[in-house]
């Protein structure tokens, strides 16, 4: 049983939303990681005389209050050269409460590594998209890159893989020395009631350097004061909340920051604003030189996540980065239940005000869900013509459809393509900012043919009749707008295809419409000699001088080859998509058309039998053609391929995209908005049931689709992790029947059904797990922890046939779920034998007692882990089943 906990166990870094690659059938990878280009045209600036500092302070305070609105958080505005706080909204939150900083700490992590000689500005690493070591796992959500990141680029994209590997080489001493120098872990002196935060002490952990540890806590005022010292030349000031512009700065410390180190960090923060995690806020369009860093921290104080953004204005330097005396205003935005990119957007009106941008210009916003009217332009580089042209967004889309849908004859399919291509354009503006244009004319962006007078009438109509329309997710943000030639019967899941975080609309849907189309099935024979030569061209697939066998060792739920093993002089394990790309680059994209294939050796050749053409993500063009031919409109087409999304027009009017009545979403995810798939009706209302290979989930009809997808994703990932752990101990549990998950609609129902107290988050009996409402668990910061903890119990019960003692089961579940570090301090006063601990665990009377007992159970299991390692403890659990069998 899991009790209500106070902090989420799985940390997430601050990153901008995953940008679209939108690659067609033949191509795959993105190189959209280039540094900035300066904005093409400045935002209008007032020509009024300089405003009185006190009057500007009042305006900043008002603008900050309006930006924050009724959201829970804080905004601070600082003069970094003096430490004077020129505006402060919600100082209680800003001064008196501390949270993990998330990726906002990465500039200081970088500085510690630079000072220690662990990296320099050119130290590069190719991101592997996912980092997993010693119970800590985190993914990167920036666009995939085929080129390594240097330090500044890693900061701009907040690359978790880069910083996690960097953290492996850091020590607690060097990290804390750097942070304490900037005032972390101590009160700034701004208020008598302020919190000192906390520096992580004890065992060094990688997640600390990523700002993902609950032992590293900072206040907003600490963070902005530290950033101010980082950019002002090393002068750490005591923040002073006053409207008096004549006060003298109170210098607390003078820090030594090498100019080269400062330049690398500011270059990275400038990249974050121009093309990285904060690009969505369009801060780079403002006059002057803006730079900053986003962060999204682990759940704390009962909230899901906290968003951070710290940024500064500066005079635009002739070359390089601004000197300390050129840095102007600093803004910090902190939001509960948010992400760093959202905080950067809230900071924009404050920067615009400080830079003298007219109110009219400040209030003219081009958001992803409200595209600018017809005057909006993009810059497109024609690779074949070696020319860049600037044209309206709708004219650009005519050129895209002329190339991407050149043989499409159905108007509604063309409309679907127009909306998806417009969504891509809105999401990926400035994709080639470093080269001075927005998009190229190849499949790296979207193929483009310069529009001429002979544009097909159907293309004109498709663009005109969907003018301004894009596709947004549940929060009305532009989706990752992928499309491809043919899916082969089921679209792809981006997580298993590329290892990227999977929004609900990119997890795969069954598609029977393309069954009659040319690329639904294909067969290709490749001589062994040619294939081996192609594979030797890439280190990931090089089998050495011979190639004996190709084995699909793992498939995802869509039938695609997730991993392959290549047997030859050397054994290589490679992602199925990477294999397809390596072969395609060497032998042509027609050879292996997708990663949805089977392969067998036939004499001197390997024979591939597969389905689909391209990556398979999002819109299937062949399936869309058939849907349109059968009378479906473009909204139904989009609803089928992007379930749960919305169409939003120029004025921001949104209408939900409904799936076609016949839509069936594969892999246990029911059609959004469709009829219930079964289940029993309780007093709280009807329920639905969804089944996957491993789980049968019963949930209330009122549960939002996003919460269901989140729960399924956590369960799937955790199941795979626990299976791997058991395999290391040469153990396994029965695969059938599937685990039964019951999600209750409210606490009263949970209590009535389980007999547990309201403070319990979940309970497990055998292979059946029951949990409180996901919305409640998210507010507690406990949704992921609860599912991981209870699934661990289900594994333990299956392995031991429910015969393991409670103390062992509870302690091992805490360890497996990754809760050990924060449970270790619980129940230190308890000195109980395992017999007494077992007795008291059977019926704790209140939450506090349960926590103490669970802490004591974990310490007992920790002793076993130290003595027997984890594999030994799992074997100990399995022995209870063996002992029971021997008695029969």
What can you see in these coordinates?
This protein has 888 residues and is of the alpha+beta class. It is 35% helix and 17% strand. The chain has 27 helices and 30 strands. The protein has a 6-stranded mixed β-sheet, sandwiched between helices. A 6-stranded mixed β-sheet has the order 7-3-2-11-10-9, with helices on both faces. Strands 13-12-14 form a 3-stranded mixed β-sheet. Strand 9 and strand 10 form a beta hairpin. Helix 4 (151-157) runs parallel beside helix 9 (259-274) and helix 13 (411-427) runs antiparallel to helix 18 (621-629). The protein is globular. It starts with a strand and ends with a helix. Mean pLDDT is 82; it is low at 1-50, 360-375 and 650-685.
Gist of the model:
This protein is α+β, with helices and mostly antiparallel strands and 888 residues long.
Main features:
888 residues; alpha+beta; 6-stranded mixed beta sheet; 27 helices; 35% helix; globular; disordered N terminus
The largest beta-sheet arranges its strands as 1-29-30-28-27-26
How many angstroms separate the termini?
Answer: 29 Å
Q: What would you report as the Rg, rounded to the nearest angstrom?
A: 28 Å
The major β-sheet equals: 6 strands, mixed
What structural class results from the helix and strand content? alpha+beta
Per DSSP E runs of 2 or more residues, the count of β-strands stands at 30
Q: pLDDT average, as an integer?
A: 82
The amount of beta strand, in percent, is 15-25%
- Weakly predicted, low-confidence segments: 1-50, 360-375, 650-685
Query: How much helix is in the residues?
Result: 25-40%
Number of helical runs? 27
Shape: globular
């Amino acid at each position: 049983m899991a009790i209500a906990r106070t902090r989420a166990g799985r940390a997430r870094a601050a990153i901008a939303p995953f940008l679209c690659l939108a690659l067609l059938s033949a191509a795959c990878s993105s190189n959209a990681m280039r540094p900035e280009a300066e904005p093409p045209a400045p935002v209008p600036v007032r020509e009024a005389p300089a405003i009185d500092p006190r009057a500007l302070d009042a305006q900043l305070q008002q603008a900050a209050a309006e930006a924050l609105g009724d959201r829970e958080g804080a905004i601070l505005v600082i003069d970094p050269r003096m430490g004077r706080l020129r505006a402060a909204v919600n100082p209680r939150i800003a001064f008196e409460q501390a949270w993990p900083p998330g990726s906002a700490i990465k500039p200081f992590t970088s500085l510690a590594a630079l000072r220690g000689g662990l990296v320099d500005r050119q130290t590069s690493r190719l991101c592997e998209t996912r980092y997993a070591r010693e119970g800590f796992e985190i993914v990167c959500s920036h666009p995939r890159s085929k080129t390594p990141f240097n330090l500044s680029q890693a900061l701009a994209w907040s690359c978790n893989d880069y910083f996690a590997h960097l953290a492996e080489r850091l020590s607690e001493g060097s990290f804390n020395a750097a942070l304490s120098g900037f005032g972390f872990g101590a009160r700034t002196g701004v208020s008598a009631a302020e919190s000192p935060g906390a520096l992580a002490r004890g065992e060094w952990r990688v997640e600390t350097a990523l700002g993902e540890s609950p032992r590293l806590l900072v206040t907003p005022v600490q963070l902005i004061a530290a950033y101010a010292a980082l950019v002002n030349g090393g002068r750490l000031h005591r923040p002073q909340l006053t409207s008096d512009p004549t006060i003298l700065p109170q210098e607390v410390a003078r820090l030594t920051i090498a100019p080269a180190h400062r330049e690398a960090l500011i270059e990275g923060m400038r990249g974050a604003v121009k093309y990285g995690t904060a690009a969505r806020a369009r801060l780079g369009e403002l006059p002057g030189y803006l730079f900053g860093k986003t962060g999204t921290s682990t759940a704390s104080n009962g909230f899901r996540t906290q968003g951070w953004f710290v940024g500064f204005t500066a005079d635009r330097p002739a070359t390089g980065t601004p000197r300390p005396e050129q840095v102007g205003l600093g803004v910090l935005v902190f939001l509960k239940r948010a992400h760093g990119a959202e905080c950067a957007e809230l900071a924009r009106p404050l920067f615009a005000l400080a830079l003298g941008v007219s109110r009219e210009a400040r209030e003219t916003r081009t958001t992803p869900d409200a595209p600018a009217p017809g005057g909006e332009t993009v810059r497109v580089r024609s690779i074949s013509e070696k020319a860049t042209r600037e044209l309206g967004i709708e004219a650009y889309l005519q050129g895209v459809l002329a190339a991407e849908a050149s043989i499409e004859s159905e108007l509604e399919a063309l409309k679907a393509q127009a909306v998806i291509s417009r969504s891509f354009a809105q999401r990926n503006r400035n994709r080639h900012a470093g080269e001075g244009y927005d998009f190229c004319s190849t499949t790296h962006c979207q193929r483009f043919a310069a529009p001429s007078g002979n544009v097909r009438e159907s293309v004109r109509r498709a663009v005109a009749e969907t003018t301004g329309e894009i596709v947004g997710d549940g929060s009305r943000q532009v989706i990752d707008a992928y499309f491809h030639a043919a899916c082969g019967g089921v679209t792809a899941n981006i997580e298993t295809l590329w290892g990227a975080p999977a929004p609900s609309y990119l997890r795969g849907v069954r598609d029977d419409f393309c069954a009659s189309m040319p690329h639904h099935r294909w067969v290709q024979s490749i001589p062994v000699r040619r294939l081996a030569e192609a594979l030797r061209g890439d280190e990931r697939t090089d089998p050495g001088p011979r190639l004996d066998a190709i084995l699909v060792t793992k498939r995802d739920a869509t039938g695609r080859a997730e991993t392959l093993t290549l047997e030859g002089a050397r054994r290589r394990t490679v992602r199925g998509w990477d294999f397809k790309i390596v072969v395609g680059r060497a032998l042509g994209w027609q050879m292996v058309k997708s990663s949805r294939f089977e392969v067998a050796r036939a004499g001197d050749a390997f024979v591939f039998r597969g389905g689909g053409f391209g990556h398979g993500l999002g819109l299937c063009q062949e399936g869309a053609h058939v849907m349109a031919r059968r009378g479906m409109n473009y909204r139904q087409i989009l609803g089928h391929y992007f379930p749960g999304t919305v169409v939003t027009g120029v004025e921001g009017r949104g209408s939900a995209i409904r799936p076609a009545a016949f839509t069936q979403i594969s892999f246990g995810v029911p059609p959004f908005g469709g009829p219930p798939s079964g289940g029993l009706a309780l007093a709280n209302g009807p329920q639905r049931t969804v089944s996957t290979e491993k789980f049968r989930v019963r949930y209330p009809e009122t549960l939002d689709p996003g919460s269901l997808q989140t729960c399924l994703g956590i369960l799937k990932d955790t199941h795979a992790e626990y299976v791997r752990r058991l395999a290391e101990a040469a153990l396994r549990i029965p695969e059938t029947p599937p685990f039964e998950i019951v999600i209750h609609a409210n606490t009263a129902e949970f209590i009535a059904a389980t007999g547990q107290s309201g403070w319990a988050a979940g309970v497990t009996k055998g292979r059946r797990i029951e949990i409180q409402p996901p919305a409640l668990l998210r507010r507690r910061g406990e949704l992921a922890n609860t599912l991981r903890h209870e699934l661990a119990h289900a594994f333990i019960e299956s392995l031991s046939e429910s015969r393991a003692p409670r103390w062992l089961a509870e302690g091992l579940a805490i360890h497996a779920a990754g809760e050990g570090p924060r449970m270790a301090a619980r129940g230190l006063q308890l000195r109980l034998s395992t017999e007494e601990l077992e007795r008291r665990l059977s019926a704790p009377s209140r939450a506090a007692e349960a926590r103490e007992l669970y802490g004591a159970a974990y310490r007992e299991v920790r002793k076993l882990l130290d003595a027997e390692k984890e594999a030994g403890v799992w074997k100990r659990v399995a022995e209870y089943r063996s002992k029971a069998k021997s008695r029969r």
